[in-house]
Amino acid sequence: MPSGNVIRGSRIGSAPERPAERYEPAPRRAVSYWCRNGHATEIRMAVDAEAPPLWDCPRCGLPAGRDAENPPGRARPEPYKTHLAYVKERRSAEEGEAILAEALAALRRRRGRE
Ligand SMILES: [Zn+2]
């Protein structure tokens, strides 16, 4: 009994070959962006595509840039000022001292009453 028949009769290798995958994903590179809040975002883009200068930070929505040391935009529309800083803008140091002394005196009076 020739064993060759079994092999010949099998369908091994007779299935139509899948067409070679013609679509190859383009080579990618990682591009990093940093937002003002210190979030680093890495996006992957095609090597031949030009990286946009800005990318919206997916974590906080601020624009993120390519330079980690100098992220775009401003964290706040205005630098944060303490209440005292605003007071100092409106009043001179002397006035400030007087107001402080007055406030302390009022505080001491209140505490004295308690
Ligand atoms: Zn962010």
Which regions are unreliable across 5 or more consecutive residues at pLDDT < 50? none
Structural class: alpha+beta
Helix content range: 25-40%
Query: Total strand count, please?
Result: 4
Per DSSP, what share of the residues sits in E-state strands of 2 or more residues? 15-25%
Number of helices: 3
Distance between the termini: 115 Å
Instruction: Indicate the mean pLDDT.
Output: 81
Radius of gyration: 35 Å
The helix-strand sequence is HEEEEHH
Largest sheet, spatial ordering of strands = 2-1-4-3
| Ions and ligands | zinc ion
Principal-axes geometry comes out as: rod-shaped
**Main β-sheet description:** 4 strands, antiparallel
Topology:
Elements: H1 4-9, E1 28-35, E2 40-46, E3 54-56, E4 63-65, H2 83-90, H3 93-113
The structure holds zinc ion.
Zinc ion (ZN) is lined by residues 35, 37, 39, 57, 59-60, 62.
Description:
The protein is of the alpha+beta class and 114 residues long. The radius of gyration is 35 Å and the shape is rod-shaped. The termini are far apart. A hairpin with a 6-residue loop joins strand 3 and strand 4 (63-65). The chain has three helices and four strands; from the N terminus they run H-E-E-E-E-H-H. The model has no long low-confidence stretch (mean pLDDT 81). Strands 2-1-4-3 form a four-stranded antiparallel beta sheet, with no helix packed on it. Zinc ion is lined by residues 35, 37, 39, 57, 59-60, 62.
